[in-house]
Amino acid sequence: MSYTPNLLLRNVKPVGADFDGTETVDIRIADGQITEIGTGLEGNDQEDVHDADGNYLSGGWMDMHVHLREPGFEHKETIETGCEAAAFGGFTEVACMPNTNPAIDTRDVVEYIKKKSAELPVEVHPIGCVSKERKGESIAEMGDMKEGGAVAFSDDGDPVYNSQLMRVALEYSSMLEMPVINHEEDLKLSRPGHMHEGRVSARLGIDGTPGIAEETMIARDILLAEFTGGHIHVAHISTAKAVDLVRRAKAEGINVTTEVCPHHFDLTDEEIERRDFDTNVKMHPPLRTQEDVDAMIEGLADGTIDAICTDHAPHAIQEKEVEFIYAPNGIIGLETAWSVSVRQLLNSGVLELKELLDKFVKNPREILNLTVPEIKEGATANLTLFNIDEQWTFDEQQVRSKSANSPYLDQQMNGRAEAIYNKGQFVVNEI
Question: Least CB-packed of 4, 176, 182, 201 within 10 Å?
Answer without folding.
Answer: 4
